Task: inverse folding
């Protein structure tokens, strides 16, 4: 992403805050100018102190009062500026994050599935923070820094041209030193963070899987790897730490040289009568302060570059095109019947590798369809297409004769109930989770659904019953219990079409057996797609889809498929030998 | 913290040198204002240009000396900080390797990872800053004050008043903001978790049309965050203007006091300038000091957390004079097995009763029928304890008896005659297990014997204790009651590593490590040949897809094995266990991600693993019908122990599971309900 487009994106977020931003800059300017003027007033005050009995107290008072007022106003300006900048930066962060989630909730699953969650999270959390820290606060620092330097120089030239020239000619030295060290250390820091990343991923693996490491008595071999990795990290860290810590002493040295030169030229000027002692003090104070913003600015520039890179990453996410808006379809029935037709459907996740080439399925309302096939045969893909999580690449899918692409997604999904093998629960209460598809459900209805899913008894035993708050990942509940909640969730809304993807894989066989009745009732009169291992379920299906390598290679009932030498028959025989 | 300090050994000298050199640098800096005062009072007042030049040169010399001191100090402190942290980190990693499952469960791996990464960085930073600044900053603050006293004690009182005022302001602001920052962190966590739920739960949320609700919910979270950030920002951004204000107003006061003192002849103009310069130095250092204190508190907190991990003593350790499991078990049937259709197994017992399975030549032959043809030969239920084991050491005839009893498939009875000759390889006696922090036993009163070469199925509902039971064998957890012996000795008596290499477990969750297929397979046996690896892959039904990879065994494996599918990963973890050639192999529901055909092939391979005792934990009764023995678990109790047919006839829990798995369950013969087996099955 080009810097220009990053900036135009940023401007979009800053537009609303422009008046605040302008005010902040004004305040910054005011505070800097006053701060520069204070040493001048103090110098003037010192000039009124000549010797015993030679103190002009009236003038002294005047200078001190002015300086005091400057100090107070400048402090107020600084504070107000921080308040405004904070407000702007937090507002921008909030807006970008909200937009990001707005975008994420609309992005096609093909985009989200292709990216690690951690990557998206780090963009929306860390990168956005970097943008606000680096760009806004960095910009403020940059602005005040430049202003301080220019202002100080102007004042110095006004006070004494010679000293000002000395300072101006020598300070680039400090800049040069800082730059020199920064560019050297940059590489060392990169080496350090690479070494650290390597070590972190090693730690992630070996400590994250500590149990397996122990089961194989791999501890000492793991420690060996760790130690060699740590040795490398220590080398890099030592270099990075040491060389970067040279910046301060070195610039301090350059500054003290400038200071000394300033003292030399200044004292000669005082002796020559072109400067007062007070003004010399002022000049010395300036010489000490003047170089400081240079260090800050060189730090800020790296920060700004970093912030731009981060901004590019987040805007890349926000620029990801959304699927075209759904055309209006005014005549929607109350709900779907569940007649589903796949004709010549083609689909692939990656264009180069076609997966489904020509899929034809015809399902009537109320049918029970079992999907069987070896691992990785494309069962999940079929579900992705039915739910329209992914768009087909060719052919047509129709629901009750309506082309899938004309059915609003929300309407479609309201009509399909889904229980997946992956039991995701939201981090709310158990009640919220069950009522997800029907937030207006009464407690009575929720309890009934839980009972039907055989979840009621374990929920009742939880300390807070239905109000138990589940942590992230449904923490605290076993995989089986989570799956029961997912089933209850569907039991509560009972849409006309059901998808059960290994819906009982984590439930022990006895409980599963008990739920079967509930499942049977639930499926009655509903079109249901079932991915299951259990032969009895498969046998009773009205239609069996045998999938392999993404395509449906055989379909029919148990009898018709068993009647010939089918792939199904091999699978079935392999399975039935054990059962 | 104290325990962490011992890692400083060897760095002590440098740890002292670093702040010392910093001190020298600070002294150099403190002398500068004095020189300026001299320039003003002596040089300028006397118009002595030579004096001024000499003083300025002195200033530069001090600057050079200061630089030299500083560089030395920085080097020492970087060296100490990095070296020390590396040492702690390596020690911590090694310590983590010693922790047992119980400790890992209690602490949680996420925490351990944070301790090793984030906390360590904080500690390194803290040590480095401490060495560099802890001496320097206070020294300059107090030094500047002291120098002010040497200039003029009256005026210096202004300094004395300033320091506490500044300290109070800085600490007050820190005190107010720290809890506020904590709240900001909490709100940020909520933003992250809101984001994560939108990513992790995307399918469910979309299936339920929750997008709009989620957007609103997230907007609420970000609004909360931004509100609390603004609040804490308002207070923390007071710090700078406030300290600026205080120091500069005090400077004005100083100039005023100085003016009074000059007026009365106690002070010169140059000295007022010196006082003013000292004040400026104090300002710079105080800001650094506040930062430093913040960093150090953070580092100390991290140090304490790391220390608390060091303080945990591992619960599972090898005892003094630990026994080694003598392996491998001899399979005398290498040739006999080919001669006979039966799978025969020869287990040699050493002459010394101390070593359960030695490698002497004389031995008993325990014939096992081939499970594939449905003949299950070994029916032992009520078995010998350790005494019987010893008694059986010399009983060739007993082996014959066992062979005789092999075709006997009748229900087991408490008649131990069939078993008198055989020594169990594993023996549970009233074993109970309670996990740390749990209020009740996970396993209780487990009694059973497993014989060498048996193919043992373990079944039961979720949470019934199947995994807990098998995890006791490699001593992942220590039993909390009863006794458990493996290879004739208490598991606690063995060297842990030796025990675990003889008892391999394939865990439920299939995890691989980054590296290559080969590096993963070599985990259990670092010196395995390629031939052995391929053999293991073959038996684990993984050879085909590995062969299809261009790099074969050297195919890269990404972190966690993410570049393989769930089923492939599972097969590779099984192959990994096969490679290690253990005597006892435990598959803990490891077939769950495999399709029927593959799982069946795998089970066949397991049946054919000569000489190995295999545990196959499963939720599905269908997978276990051909086992030599099935253990049925329910709520932590062993409620059934027998063959498929025996359990069908007598164990109600098993009958239910079998029925649920679609197995045709025959009605119970009315007279059989309370016979030996069911009595046995119910026995605890």
Result:
């Amino acid at each position: 992403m080009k810097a220009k487009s990053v900036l135009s994106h940023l401007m979009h977020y800053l537009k609303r805050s422009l008046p605040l931003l302008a005010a902040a800059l004004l305040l910054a300017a005011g505070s800097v100018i006053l701060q520069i003027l204070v040493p001048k007033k103090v110098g003037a005050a010192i000039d009124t102190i000549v010797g015993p009995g030679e103190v002009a107290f009236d003038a002294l008072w005047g200078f001190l009062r002015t300086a005091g007022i400057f100090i107070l106003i400048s402090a107020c300006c600084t504070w107000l500026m921080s308040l405004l900048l904070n407000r702007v930066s937090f507002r921008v962060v909030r807006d970008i994050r909200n937009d990001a989630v707005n975008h994420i909730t609309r992005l096609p699953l093909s985009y989200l599935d292709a990216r690690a969650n951690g990557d998206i999270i780090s963009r929306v959390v860390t990168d956005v923070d970097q943008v606000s820290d680096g760009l806004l606060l960095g910009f403020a620092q940059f602005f005040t820094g430049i202003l301080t330097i220019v202002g100080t120089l102007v004042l110095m030239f006004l006070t004494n041209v010679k000293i000002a020239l000395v300072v101006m000619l020598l300070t680039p030295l400090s800049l040069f030193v800082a730059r020199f060290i920064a560019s050297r250390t940059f590489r060392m820091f990169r080496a350090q963070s690479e070494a650290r990343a390597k070590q972190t991923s090693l730690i992630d693996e070996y400590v994250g899987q500590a149990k397996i490491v122990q089961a194989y008595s791999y501890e000492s071999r793991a420690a060996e790897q760790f130690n060699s990795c740590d040795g490398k990290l220590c080398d890099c860290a030592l270099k990075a730490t040491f060389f970067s810590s040279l910046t301060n002493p070195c610039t301090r040295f350059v500054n003290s040289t400038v200071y000394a030169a300033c003292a030399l030229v200044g004292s000669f000027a005082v002796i020559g009568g072109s400067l007062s002692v007070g003004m010399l003090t002022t000049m010395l104070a300036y010489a000490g302060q003047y170089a400081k913003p240079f260090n800050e600015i060189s730090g800020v520039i790296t920060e700004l570059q970093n912030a731009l890179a981060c901004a590019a990453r987040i805007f890349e996410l926000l620029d990801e095109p959304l699927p075209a808006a759904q055309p209006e379809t005014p005549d929607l029935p109350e709900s779907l019947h569940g007649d589903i037709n796949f004709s010549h459907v083609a689909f692939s996740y990656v264009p180069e590798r076609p997966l489904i080439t020509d899929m034809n399925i015809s399902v009537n309302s109320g049918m029970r369809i079992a999907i069987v096939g070896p691992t990785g045969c494309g069962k999940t893909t079929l579900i992705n297409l039915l739910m329209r999580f992914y768009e087909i690449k060719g052919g047509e899918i129709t629901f009750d004769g309506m082309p899938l692409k004309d059915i609003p997604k929300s309407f479609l999904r309201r009509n399909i109930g889904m229980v997946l093998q992956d039991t995701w629960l939201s981090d709310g209460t158990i009640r919220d989770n069950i009522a997800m598809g029907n937030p207006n459900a009464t407690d009575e209805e929720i309890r009934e659904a839980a009972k039907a899913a055989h979840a009621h008894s374990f929920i009742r035993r939880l300390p807070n019953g239905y109000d138990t708050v589940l942590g992230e990942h449904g923490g605290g509940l076993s995989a089986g219990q989570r799956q029961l909640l997912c089933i209850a969730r569907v039991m509560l809304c009972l849409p006309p079409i059901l998808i059960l993807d290994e819906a009982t894989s984590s439930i022990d066989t006895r409980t599963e057996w008990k739920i079967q009745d509930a499942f049977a009732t639930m499926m009655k009169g509903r079109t249901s797609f079932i991915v299951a291992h259990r032969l009895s379920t498969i046998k009773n299906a009205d239609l069996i889809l045998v999938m392999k390598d993404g395509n449906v290679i055989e379909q029919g009932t148990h009898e018709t498929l068993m009647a010939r030498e089918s792939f199904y028959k091999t699978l079935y025989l392999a399975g039935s030998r054990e059962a | 913290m104290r325990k962490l300090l011992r890692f400083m050994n060897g760095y002590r000298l440098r740890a002292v040198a670093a702040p010392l050199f910093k001190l020298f640098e600070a002294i150099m800096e403190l002398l500068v204002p004095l020189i300026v005062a001299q320039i003003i009072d002596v040089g300028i007042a006397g118009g002595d240009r030579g004096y001024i030049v000499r003083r300025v040169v002195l200033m530069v010399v001090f600057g050079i000396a200061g630089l030299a001191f500083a560089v030395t100090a920085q080097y020492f402190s970087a060296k100490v900080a990095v070296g020390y942290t590396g040492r702690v980190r390596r020690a911590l990693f090694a310590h983590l390797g010693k922790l047992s499952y119980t400790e890992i469960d209690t602490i949680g791996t996420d925490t351990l990872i944070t301790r090793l990464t984030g906390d360590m960085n904080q500690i390194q930073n803290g040590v480095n800053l401490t060495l560099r600044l802890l001496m320097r900053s206070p020294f300059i603050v107090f030094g500047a004050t002291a120098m002010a006293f040497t200039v003029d004690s009256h005026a210096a009182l202004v300094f004395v008043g300033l320091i506490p005022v500044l300290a109070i302001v800085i600490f007050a602001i820190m005190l107010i903001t720290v809890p506020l920052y904590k709240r900001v962190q909490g709100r940020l966590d909520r933003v992250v978790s809101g984001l994560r739920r939108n990513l992790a739960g995307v399918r469910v949320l979309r299936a339920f049309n929750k997008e709009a609700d989620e957007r609103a919910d997230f907007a609420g979270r970000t609004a909360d965050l931004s509100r609390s950030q603004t609040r804490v920002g308002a207070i923390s951004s007071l710090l700078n203007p406030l300290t600026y204000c205080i120091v500069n107003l005090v400077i004005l006061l100083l100039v005023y006091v100085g003016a009074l003192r000059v007026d009365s002849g106690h002070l010169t103009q140059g000295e007022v300038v010196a006082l003013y310069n000292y004040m400026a130095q104090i300002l710079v250092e105080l800001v650094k000091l506040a930062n430093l204190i913040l960093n150090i508190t953070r580092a100390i907190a991290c140090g304490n957390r790391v220390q608390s991990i060091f303080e945990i003593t591992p619960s599972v350790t090898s005892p003094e004079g630990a026994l080694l499991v003598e392996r491998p078990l001899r399979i005398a049937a290498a040739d006999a097995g080919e001669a006979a259709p039966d799978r025969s197994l020869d287990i040699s017992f050493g002459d010394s009763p101390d070593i359960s399975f030695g490698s002497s030549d004389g031995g008993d032959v325990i014939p096992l029928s081939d499970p594939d043809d449905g003949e299950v030969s070994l029916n032992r239920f009520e078995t010998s304890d350790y005494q019987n084991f010893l008694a059986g050491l010399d009983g060739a005839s007993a082996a014959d008896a066992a062979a005789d009893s092999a075709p006997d498939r009748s229900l087991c009875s408490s008649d131990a005659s069939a078993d008198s000759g055989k020594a169990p390889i594993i023996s549970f006696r009233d074993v109970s297990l309670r996990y740390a922090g749990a209020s009740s036993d996970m396993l209780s009163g487990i009694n059973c014997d497993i014989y060498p070469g048996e193919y043992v199925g373990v079944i039961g509902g979720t949470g019934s204790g199947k995994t807990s039971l098998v995890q006791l064998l490699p001593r992942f957890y220590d039993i909390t009651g009863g006794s458990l012996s493996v290879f004739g000795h208490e598991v606690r008596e063995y060297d842990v590593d030796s025990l675990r290499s003889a008892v391999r477990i394939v865990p439920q969750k299939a995890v691989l490590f980054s590296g290559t297929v080969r590096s993963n397979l070599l985990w259990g046996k670092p010196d395995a040949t390629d031939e052995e690896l391929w053999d293991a892959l073959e038996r684990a039904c993984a050879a085909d897809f590995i062969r299809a990879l261009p790099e074969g065994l050297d195919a890269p494996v990404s972190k966690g094995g993410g570049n393989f599918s769930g089923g492939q990963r599972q097969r590779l973890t099984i192959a990994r266990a096969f490679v290690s050639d253990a005597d006892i192999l435990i598959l803990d529901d490891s077939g769950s991600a495999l399709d029927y055909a593959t799982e069946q092939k795998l089970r066949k391979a397991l049946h054919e693993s000569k000489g190995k005792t295999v545990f196959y934990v499963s939720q599905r009764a269908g997978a276990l019908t051909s086992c030599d023995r099935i253990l049925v678990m329910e709520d932590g109790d062993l409620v059934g122990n027998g063959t498929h047919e025996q359990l069908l006839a007598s164990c109600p829990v098993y009958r239910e599971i079998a029925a649920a798995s679609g197995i045709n369950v025959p009605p119970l013969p009315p007279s059989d309900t309370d016979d030996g087996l069911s009595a046995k099955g119910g026995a605890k």
Summary: The longest strand of chain B covers residues 426-433. Residues 259 and 265 of chain B are 10 Å apart (CA to CA).
